[in-house]
Please model this.
Amino acid sequence: MKTIVLLLAVSLLALGCVVPGGEAKALAGYQAVLAKYGLGADAFMPAHPVDVLGFESEMKAVKEAAGASGSADGRALEKAADIELDVAAALKKMFEGREHLKVVGIIAPDCSKDGAAGKARAAFEEAATRARLALEKKKILEKDFANFMDRFAGVAGPDFDRYVAYLAITNTAAAKQLESRCRK
Model:
């Protein structure tokens, strides 16, 4: 009986159905790929650009190793690698044809029940857009103020009031133009 069990185990190993410790190697590979590209398993955006093609090729190797282990943990890891690959593929498609965006940040999918990562990502993007707009508006105001100082020696009188009104109109229009450009 022991001989039959031993032969069965050896034949399964030979067929590659179960590789003892295979999922541990695959997990180590998964963590190594994430670490190499500056990503934590729970990060929704890295602090630096990521080579999507390199990330994709290395994650495919991890997925194959995880699938080859044949264990439940290996299959779970294979699914996790699949999610990462789906995100990388979506990013590649999104930036297709834009040569200056070959290297982009990997954004992990939102796997949380309440969509917290998606909300955090949206809040981050909105804050980044507002910051960009504020900087652009500041530049416009500084330029307008320099023009104002050149054109009006005194700050009292109808000329000053008219110029303040002009600034309000032009800056509102400029801010709207910038906002529409930033959101495209």
Q: What stands out?
A: Helices lie at 2-15, 22-36, 52-69, 72-94, 116-151, 158-182.
